[in-house]
Amino acid sequence: MGLMKESKVATACLVIIVIFLSGFVLRLAKPVLFPFFLAVLISFILLPIIDFFTRLKIPRFVAIIVLLLVTFAGLYLLGVLFFTTGKAFAAEVPVYGENILQTIDALQQRFNFTPLDLDTINWEEQVNLNRMGGLLVSSLGPFLSFISKLFLVFIFLVFILAGRGKTRIKIEKSLETNNARKMNVIIENIDAQVQKYLGIKTVVSFLTGIFVTVTLLLFGLDFAIFFGFLTFILNYIPNIGSFIATTFPVTIALLQFDSLWPAVWILVILTVIQQSMGNFVEPRLMGTGLGLSPLVVLFFLFFWGWLWGIPGMIMAVPVAAIIKIVCDNIPELRVVAALMSNN
Fold first, then answer.
1. Start-end of H helices in the chain
2. Phi, psi for 44 (deg, rounded to 5)
């Protein structure tokens, strides 16, 4: 009896040590593992497109090369967008400061507030543009460091997409017929469900970003394209992401325009877009959906945010969804999927 207790304690301690070491390794190996994980997620999004091209009699290697080049160019342009937006925002800070002064003066005259001596503030002196630009650029460090290793993502994608379909053959060679058939069915189900989830999530997030961009352009808001892209990325984070994606353009609207009404209308319209896409369009496209527990979502957000910062938080929910899909398809792990479920 004593030996059994000691064995359980030893096992528990071993599990804790393994979890701790895994987190430590993931944190240290971020420069390599983050591009790899992102390449895996991108591959799941690209595979249905490649399969569609092959059904159109386009050679598979041609479809892979074209999509890889488009993905590489798209990620590079997004990095340029982040960098130029940070510099442009730093240049607009004095203008926003003057708008704040005018808004405060208008409120003072309307509500008879005690006058504030803000007219003497020299915004160009108070805000060091070079320092502000450096701060904004340094805050984009995780994304820009990924852009600097874009070639690594490209290499991972090449091998992942080129190795597509070889897993079945390897399993058939290494296992008995019945076991190989069962294993291939499980892998195909996991592959199909992950592709469906990431594909639908990406399409819905893309459409949401397009609607947000068009809305902000119609209002003449600064950095409209950047905020549209930010909406697309943050929509991978349930609830919290949409809130953050709405807060930024509304804040800029308050700084940019002389009246409060543009900010109010932007808030209303963006909220309607986010709620419509998130609560009506996406669930109908997903069908039954994954039903991840909010507690699981929060845990993954905090855990991956601690590991890899903002990029980790963006990848957190897709990673949780993939883990749940895998556990759903493996009988021995269905209890884990049940614990992760919202049902």
1. 2-28, 30-55, 60-111, 123-126, 129-139, 141-148, 150-162, 166-174, 177-219, 224-234, 240-256, 261-276, 282-286, 294-329, 334-340
2. -65, -30
Record the tokens describing residue 246, joined without a space.
Answer: 């709405």
**Which pTM does this prediction carry?**
0.75
Q: Per residue in 193-246, pLDDT tens?
A: 888 888 888 889 999 999 999 999 999 988 888 899 889 988 888 778 888 889
Q: Judging by beta carbons within 10 Å of its beta carbon (0-12, 13-18, 19+), is residue 116 exposed, middle or buried?
A: exposed
Indicate the SS3 state at residue 238.
coil
Q: Are 228 and 212 in contact (CB under 8 A)?
A: yes
Distances (CA, A) of 230 to 208, 282, 312: 10, 19, 15
Token representation of residue 72: 């590489």
Find the Cα–Cα–Cα–Cα dihedral 208, 78, 298, 268, rounded to 10°: -30
The first and second tokens of residue 170, run together, are 């390897």
Q: Cα angle at 72 between 69 and 76, to 5 degrees?
A: 140
Distance between CA 55 and CA 303 in Å, rounded?
Answer: 41
Total residues found in the chain within this entry: 343
Q: Which two structure tokens, joined as six digits, stand for 339?
A: 């614990």
Distance CA(229)–CA(81), nearest Å, equals 9
DSSP state of 333: G
> Rounded CA gap, 15 and 10, in Å?
9
